[in-house]
Amino acid sequence: MSTILESDTRPLIPQDIAKIVITPKSYADDDIIYPAFKWLRENMPLGVAEVEGYDPIWVVTKHADIKAIELNAKLFHNADHNPILNDRASDEFMKQINGGTTRLLSSLTYMDPPEHAAYRNLTQSWFMPNRVSKLEEKIRTLARNSVDTLLSFDGECDFVRDFALHYPLRVIMTLFGVPPEDEPRMLKLTQEFFGVHDPEEQRPEMVADPVAAGKQWAATLEEFFEYFDGLSAQRRANPSDDMLSLIANSQVNGAPIPRDEANGYYVAIATAGHDTTSSSTAGGLHGMLLYPDNFAKLKADPSLVKGLVDEAIRWTSPVKHFMRNATEDTVVRGQTIRAMDRLMISYPSGNRDEEVFSDPTRFDITRSPNPHIAFGFGPHMCLGQHLAKLEMRVLFEELLPHIESIELAGDPRLVETNFVGGYKSLPVRFKKR
Ligand code: HEM
């Protein structure tokens, strides 16, 4: 990002607020992070956060600005810098080990036009609603098995650890073609990948290392790549109808896709495909427990389960940000953004924007319309959104009729991350029907 000049009139976010929205730890406490975003929306909807150790960045907190910026993928690039906010030392470390670029992963989020469309088109039709809806019966069977496991806990369990973490993992790995015995390894690697800042998710050798985030990222990716190299070779030799085979045998510009791009795809789907969905599922239950009138509404009208899914995703917003880079000088909300400035798109803030959502903190499954942006917007909008919504709907449909009553049995805990995360633990006590 260009340095801030003395004559600069850009609004500087007060240090206490800037630290909150940049620091991973704040995202583990809704009572800290959401008031900070509210302050920004009301007082400095587009301001610059300058926090020691990080590049100065614009923090985009309004729903309308997020949509406008995401729609214009030529003016706001993903890949000119790291599309994920990291401390400067970690970014430098990644550049050192990776030929001067932070692109350690050649996945869709690290691509801009025209490369992005060429790679997205390889799987886009697979993820379309008409295609995904054909998977409903298969997914319902997995949901039923998962609900049976939960019910076997006889009254008390951790809704995240004992239940929500495993079902989306099982769904995506089944469709992907990863054998069930490798699922724990995929879960561990995903948690390390997204939880680089959370002491409980850090590899022991990384704790207290000043470039822990960069190092853990690199180490996790190396392990993912090693694993997927083997599966990729297998599927090239013996293709089947799973997603791994589709990607392994894809071509771009008339040639098989290179190793890095194939691995980028596998890692994106293997990581983005479950952590987000399990957090949103846990958030859906937590929201209903805090606002219990929703249970009665759902009982009276089971078709409201679709509203429950949308509201769970809005209210949880498991993806906390993606970064964009301005490619030329431009003006947004009256502020001059300069070429190469970095912007942090804040989905949790956009999803609590009072101009779009009335009483946004309330969890309300009858909210309609619910134009949330938890899946992003524009050309990078979540590839797996229809699958995620189908998975969650089917799970709640299978689960809720078996529950007579349910209540919190302890404090929920959230992951310390400014990137992707959500519930680490949600202790509940329930009675079966
Ligand atoms: C509730 C669950 C989910 C949420 C909230 C979510 C959220 C997001 C967000 C915010 C983005 C970035 C969008 C942007 O830059 O505009 C994204 C991208 C992506 N998501 Fe999801 N996601 C979810 C589930 C899934 C699932 C189930 C899959 C795959 C099976 C998936 C695969 C992807 C991929 C591949 C991208 C990159 C798309 C691109 O850059 O073109 N996601 N997701």
Report what the structure shows.
By secondary structure, the chain is of the alpha+beta class. The protein has a single domain (15-432), classed as Cytochrome p450 (Orthogonal Bundle). 45% of the residues lie in helices and 12% in strands. The chain is built from 18 helices and 14 strands. The strands form 5 sheets. A 5-stranded mixed β-sheet has the order 1-2-10-7-3, with helices on both faces. A 3-stranded antiparallel β-sheet has the order 4-14-11. A two-stranded antiparallel ribbon has the order 5-6. Helix 7 (136-151) packs across helix 18 (385-399). The longest helix is centred in the middle third of the chain and has 26 residues, at 212-237. The mean pLDDT is 94. It binds protoporphyrin IX containing FE (HEM). Residues 70, 108-109, 120, 172, 268-269, 272-273, 276-277, 280, 313, 318-319, 322, 347, 374-378, 380-384, 387-388 line the site of protoporphyrin IX containing FE.
